[in-house]
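FIELD: query
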Amino acid sequence: MQRRDWKIYKGVAARRIPETVRSSINPNGEITFDLDTYRKMGEPEAMSLMYDESRRIIGVKPAHADEPHAVLVRIRHERSNRVVRSIPFLRENGIHLDRTLRFPYSFLEDNVLILDLRTAVTCGKGAWKLIKRHL
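FIELD: result
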């Protein structure tokens, strides 16, 4: 019998864990979050976007649509998620994205959605198709 020298995958594997917050951000400034999180935040009409530069954390906080800097919440997919869009927010804070990032450890803290860029992982459409072509 042949001895194997296994290398264990240490990356973050895609999975849907019940009761977790699902969120992502893309280069177009779209911050997407799941419908359950939106409901837990009180289904606000708008959100305030915040950034902790020293920790590289984005905060998304419920706001009233009349607030001057609030970004409107839009429907991304009727039954699954919502989105706020703000390229100026990314530019102002020097956040440069080449690809869509998924936040596997996002959570709510005092009704603020916490998105840590240090733990974000890349995601995208068609990655599996590219891999299959090379097999």
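FIELD: remark
The chain is about 15% helix and 35% strand.
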